[in-house]
Write a structure and sequence with these properties.
about 140 residues; alpha+beta; six-stranded mixed sheet
Length: about 140
């Protein structure tokens, strides 16, 4: 496993990568479709993203069924503010739009409302808050 970390002030917003890999196991064993990816620039790992489709094996907001979810997106603290998160989001959405696990009309992302940089990134791609708060996280949604 790569030692990718967010900055100290972002720890409250992002689960550890080890926790995310464990979540992939839970998803896969409960009929879900996890898609974990390391984000590379050239051959250097700079981040991690975890997508899921359909059943997650966890409690879910009302929007979740038969939708894609960007469950985790993190860029290592050494590589932030270089546009890698934005470029990763472009690639993530391209991947989701080929419907690798099945058709969907929406993609959703849970995020802490205090995480303004994340909210701004998501909104710049057309995500809009659904008005639902689930497990203390706002739910933002994008038609795909």
């Amino acid at each position: 496993m790569f030692n990718l970390e967010v900055s100290e002030d972002q720890l409250q917003f992002v689960a550890s990568n080890l926790s995310s890999v464990a979540s992939c196991y839970v998803l896969a064993t409960n009929g879900g479709h996890p898609f974990p990816f390391i984000i590379y620039v050239d051959e250097q790992p700079v981040g991690f993203v975890m997508l899921a489709y359909g059943t997650t094996g966890y409690e879910e907001p009302s929007i979740a069924e038969d939708k894609y979810c960007i469950m985790r997106l993190m860029i290592d603290k050494q590589y932030q503010n270089r546009g890698y998160g934005r470029e990763a989001m472009k690639k993530i959405l391209e991947f989701i739009r080929i419907f690798p696990a099945g058709p969907a009309h929406y993609c959703w992302i849970p995020y802490k409302s205090e995480n303004i940089p994340a909210k701004n990134l998501y909104e710049s791609f057309g995500f809009r808050d659904s008005g639902e708060v689930f497990n203390n996280e706002s739910i933002t949604v994008l038609p795909i």
